[in-house]
Design brief:
The protein has about 210 residues and is an alpha+beta fold. Helices cover about 60% and strands about 10% of the residues. The chain contains six helices and five strands; from the N terminus they run αααβαββααββ. The chain has helices at about 5-30, 35-55, 65-95, 115-125, 150-170, 175-190; strands at about 100-105, 130-135, 140-145, 205, 210. Strand 4 (about 205) and strand 5 (about 210) form a beta hairpin. One of its GO terms (cellular component) is plasma membrane.
Length: about 210
């Protein structure tokens, strides 16, 4: 790669990191009760230090946002939170309900750190499920889920996670990620499950491995 190409690539990386830098500066300003030049300068310096000096994996934003998909993502998350809250409340007051929970491994369809993080956060926000570990190298989410008494319940949780990832990618992911997600969705509708593609997620219940 020639020097001009390196310069273009470097500036492209900075441009994609700009929203993250702005968000970090805004977070720093929220911690103070006033805004002045010194606060802004220190916020910028800290944001650059966090993204450049500390050893962190690069978080490159796609530079793409679909407002319609973003709206659908927000509405679906609100719907899931309401429904899951009612289900957990019913479990809590139902004397006949006996807990049967599971640790489920879900193979994500993308390898983006940003998409993985947002998917984990979105899953953890919904009552009844919480992400307990992430295998970044293999793109695996390990989550604890309530009410997983049958294999069908486990499949339902896994499809919910993949559906959340799909909505996030279609809202903010790159064009290539969106195309990959759509292809995976067509495969699922055609009956090609992750297990048939060679993935064998692990499952264990609270009492030990199944």
């Amino acid at each position: 790669m020639t020097r001009p190409e390196l310069e273009v690539s470097r500036w492209r990386s900075v441009w994609r990191q700009l929203p993250l830098l702005i968000a970090l500066v805004a977070l720093w300003l929220f911690l103070w009760d006033h805004i002045d030049a010194l606060t802004i300068v220190t916020g910028v310096l800290l944001a650059v230090a966090v993204t450049r000096v500390l050893y962190l994996p690069p978080v490159l934003l796609s530079g793409r946002f679909n407002p319609w998909r973003g709206l659908l993502l927000g509405l679906r998350m609100m719907f899931d939170v309401v429904v899951a809250s009612l289900q957990v409340a019913f479990f809590a007051v139902n004397p006949r309900w006996q807990p049967m929970n599971a640790i489920i491994a879900v193979q994500l369809l993308t390898r983006s750190d940003l998409v993985t993080t947002l998917t984990a956060e979105a899953i953890s926000v919904v009552p009844g499920t919480v992400v307990v570990d992430i295998d970044r190298e293999r793109g695996l989410l390990y989550l604890h889920a309530l009410g997983t008494r049958t294999p069908a319940d486990i499949d339902r949780v896994r499809h919910h996670v993949l559906g959340t990832e799909e909505r996030i990618v279609l809202a903010i992911g790159t064009g290539a990620q969106a195309a990959s997600i759509r292809a995976a969705r067509r495969e699922r509708r055609a009956g090609i499950t992750p297990a048939r593609r060679g993935s064998t997620p692990d499952r264990s219940q609270d009492g030990g491995p199944s």
